[in-house]
Design brief:
heterodimer, A: 143 residues, Jelly Rolls, 3-stranded antiparallel beta sheet, B: 271 residues, mainly alpha
Chain lengths: 143, 271
């Protein structure tokens, strides 16, 4: 019996880690919606990054991701929530100070446009303004 | 009376602020910044993003940044991964130069190097797409396809339990990208272009990822050298916010990354 326990635990751990890594259907939908928002900026010459960041945001909370941006480029950060809600996207500099952005807000879809004066690390926040929380996804585009 | 009313309002405001425990929504705390998510796919910019920023201020001679053909016969996996990243950056340079034949040549070499790592199964389709887009001069689509190819290589590495090699591909691309950008700035220095070189947090993030790779891989001579040189480069790209690197500082970064490239390209290492 003792011999089987580690094997069983290993299988359990492997299954759990796979489940954690796999994107949920809600995240896939949120990513599709975020790409729809970003697609609108493509008409203005913005290129969409192939990478994305998905997660879960709780009511009246935010999710934060670090990005590294280059002075001279213009950026749009586009996000969508899977559940009916109201979200907002904001950008902070490396000291944590909110920077002024152009904004697009449409219920569970939102975006923030920003042109950094300095290259370096910035933080993008997806805020749940209204709603019960759930999955969201963020993509970004640049030109 | 009016003076007391104003004072009363101020006190009331302060009490309400303290009672709600409100913090300034326009500022994040150091703890919040520390806990922010960081991932290879979104926190590390592509070479294409770096080149886009450079192209804004001065007309860059992109084809002047080409290097000679790279051997695709390396046997050491870490060396292949680092060179693969560099080759992908070369692909972005060829796209900036709008040079379809060069894009196709590099696309073919990317597939060969990926094959050497055993991750080419799904990439053949990507190789064909790169050729088609290059023939049709679809430069924006090519840029997206090249990034998608890089991401596919990385996800294939992850599924083949080669997680440690993923950061080496990213790092190889960043080193080559930085070499090209510093070389272009040195040819025609201007302050706006030089500003793109300030990336201390990016280098620190890559250092932290390098610290997560297996001790065996970290002990390999090439990887060990790359880690040491990355520490040196971190200091060279750590300018205060708002400070523009001087021509001499740009040259120092270029020399440091060029030494790394020479090492990554030329060392013949054991399997």
């Amino acid at each position: 019996m003792k011999r089987w326990l580690p094997i069983f635990l290993s299988i359990l751990l492997l299954a759990a880690s796979n489940a954690m890594r796999a994107e949920t259907d809600a995240e896939v939908q949120a990513r599709k919606d975020a790409l729809d928002v970003a697609g609108a900026f493509s008409n203005d010459g913005f290129k969409i990054r192939d990478g994305h960041w998905c997660g879960v945001v709780k009511p009246h909370d935010h999710a934060l991701v670090a990005v590294n941006l280059y002075a001279g480029n213009q950026y749009w950060f586009s996000a969508a929530a899977a559940e009916p809600s109201k979200i907002a996207v904001s950008v902070y500099d490396e000291t944590g100070k909110q920077v002024t952005t152009e904004s697009y807000n449409n219920g569970e879809k939102a975006a923030a446009g920003f042109s950094p004066a300095n290259s370096g690390q910035y933080f993008v926040s997806v805020n749940l303004v209204e709603g019960n929380g759930g999955s969201f996804c963020l993509v970004y585009s640049y030109k | 009376m009016v003076r007391f009313a104003k004072l009363g309002m101020l006190v009331l405001g302060a009490v309400v602020f303290a009672a709600t425990g409100a913090t300034d929504p326009a500022r994040l705390s150091a703890d919040q910044l520390e806990k922010a998510a960081r991932s290879d796919s979104i926190s590390i910019p592509t070479p294409g993003e770096l080149f886009a920023a450079l192209g804004k201020s001065e007309k860059t001679n992109w084809s002047g940044q080409y290097r000679g053909p790279m051997p695709v016969t390396y046997r050491n996996r870490a060396q292949i991964a680092l060179n693969l990243g560099g080759l992908i950056a070369d692909g972005f340079i060829a796209i900036e130069a709008k040079d379809g034949q060069q894009v196709k040549n590099i696309g073919s070499d990317i597939i060969k190097l990926a094959k050497a790592l055993g991750v080419s199964e799904n990439l053949l389709g990507r190789g064909k797409s790169i050729n088609e887009f290059a023939e049709n001069n679809e430069w924006d689509t090519l840029q997206e396809e090249l990034e998608a190819t890089q991401n596919e290589v990385k996800s294939s590495m992850q599924s083949h339990a080669d997680q440690d090699l993923v950061i080496l591909v990213t790092l190889g691309g960043w080193i080559r990208g930085t070499q090209v950008v510093t070389a272009a700035i040195m040819q025609k220095y201007d302050e706006r272009s030089a500003k793109v070189l300030r990336q201390p947090a990016l280098v620190r993030f890559m250092q932290s990822k390098m610290n997560e790779i297996s001790p065996e891989l970290r002990q390999e001579p090439l990887v060990k050298d790359v880690i040491e040189r990355l520490n040196e480069i971190e200091k060279l790209v750590s300018f205060p916010a708002g400070k523009t690197p001087t021509a001499d500082e740009v040259r120092k970064i270029n020399e440091a990354v060029s030494r790394m490239i020479t090492e990554i390209e030329s060392k013949e290492l054991p399997k």
